[in-house]
């Protein structure tokens, strides 16, 4: 594991460890957690530098999207025909 991957994971874990997080801290934690997940996946597949950056960026975006969904309480569900519908999360 690279030092960058380990540092990103440590930052994400440290951010999420607090009990009473502000919304800004929760958002930052979701972004950092997604970024760390992207780095871990890239590291697991021995990706080159460009793919590692892409995986980290995609992970950060995914973390943001998950955070935003948690605010509304809505989730997107596939409708089987290539589209999706929005409904409350279980």
Detailed description of the structure:
Helix content is 67%, strand content 11%. The protein is flat and about 40 Å long. Strands 1-2 form a two-stranded antiparallel ribbon. The model has no long low-confidence stretch (mean pLDDT 81). The termini are far apart. A hairpin with a 5-residue loop joins β1 and β2 (84-88). The longest helix has 24 residues, at 49-72. The protein has 90 residues and is mainly alpha-helical.
Mean pLDDT across the residues is 81
Euclidean distance between termini CA atoms: 36 Å
Roughly what fraction of the amino acids lie in strands? 5-15%
Question: H/E element string?
Answer: HHHEE
Round the Cα radius of gyration to an integer and report it: 15 Å
Count helical runs: 3
Compute the number of strand runs: 2
Unreliable stretches, pLDDT < 50, 5 or more residues? none
Helix fraction, binned, reads 55-70%
Quick one: overall form? flat
Oligomeric state of this protein: single chain
How would you write the strand order of the largest sheet?
1-2
Structural class label: mainly alpha
Biggest sheet details: 2 strands, antiparallel
């Amino acid at each position: 594991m690279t030092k960058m991957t380990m540092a990103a994971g440590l930052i994400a874990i440290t951010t999420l460890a607090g009990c009473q997080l502000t919304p800004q801290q929760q958002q930052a934690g979701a972004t950092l957690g997604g970024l760390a997940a992207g780095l871990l996946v890239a590291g697991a597949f021995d990706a080159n530098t460009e793919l590692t950056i892409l995986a980290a960026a995609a992970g950060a975006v995914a973390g943001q999207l998950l955070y935003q969904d948690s605010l509304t309480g809505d989730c997107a569900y596939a409708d089987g025909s290539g589209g999706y519908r929005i409904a409350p999360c279980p």
